[in-house]
Amino acid sequence: MSFKRVITIGSAIVAVSAIFGGCSHSGSASHNTKHSNRSVALVTNGSGVDDKSFNQAAWAGAKAVGAKYGLKRGKGGYDYFASSSDGDYLPNMNQAANAGYKTIFGIGFQFNQAISKAAKAHPKNNFVIVDNIVKGQKNVASVSFRSNEAAYQAGVVAARTTKTGKLGFIGAVKSDIIDLFQAGFSQGAKAEAKKLHKHITIKNQLVGSFTAPDKGKSIAQAMYASGVDVIDTAAGSTGNGVFIAAKAINQTKPAAKKVWVIGVDSDQQDQGAYKDSTGKSANFCLTSVMTGVDAAVKDIVSRKTFPGGQLLSYGLKEKGVYLTRGFISDSAWQQAQVAGKGIISGQIKVSQHP
Length: 354
Hints:
Helices cover 34% and strands 20% of the residues. It is an alpha/beta fold and 354 residues long. The chain folds into two domains: 15-146 and 292-314, Response regulator (Rossmann fold, 3-Layer(aba) Sandwich); 147-290 and 321-345, Response regulator (Rossmann fold, 3-Layer(aba) Sandwich). The strands form four sheets. It has a six-stranded parallel beta sheet with strand order 4-3-5-6-7-15, sandwiched between helices. Helix 1 packs parallel to helix 8 (293-302) and helix 6 (213-225) crosses helix 7. The longest helix has 21 residues, at 176-196. It is globular.
């Protein structure tokens, strides 16, 4: 499940073993003293910091903070705590706060309770929750992305790309966040199909997990077998299985007959690289619906005053969500931009729920 914005957000990251929850500091605190008030820690969800999605984008933001302020990875600088399960969220938050990291990010809506408890226990630290809202706590900022707006554009592109008229959407779990992606994609695809006088159908399926690539793979295989030729994903590392399925299929075909995947949160184009049946290099990642977590992390940490108690929302207008150019045709790209202008002007109202 991404973004450049008028308001961007700053975050850095604390490294922790996913098994033991122990902090790994590769930098020296002495190098980080000058800007220790900019120190930042990231607590990941179960997908890990290299999930090629939400967590990875946030980690890029943390490293950008380090580069901007000359901070090293480690205490007083930036690092991340990796969580192997939901039970790790609060211990990792507390460990990051006790280690002296000033601003601590919880990457994902699942962190609501953990951040609320940690913020009460550590009133001198700043906490940020992404994709959820914590109300009434002055040392907690909440960040949301209007992902349905960029997902609408992705739907426009998919409607203009499909040759079979069959599209797919694979989401992680039923939630307000996944609803944004599903609703926007479906609305954009149907609106564009109507303009083209083209009949399309959309198969939607939730996997039930952000960390089940095998399930993502099997669901994608079934969708492609049914004639779907473009699948949009919003499923964390579960979505990696969709790329695996598409690659296996595309390697048996000429590039002109490929099936497509639309990535999410970070640019997943590298996962779409493959060689077709003729040995020619090609790519099946049509585009990625970007969420600017990296820019958001950098922005928040860089502010003179922490926006505690505030809800920061980023959409197309703030350049907080957007599509990568990827391998979108010129005509489809142009129509996606037309749709984007309509959304920003208010002429197009994008639904938040399917």
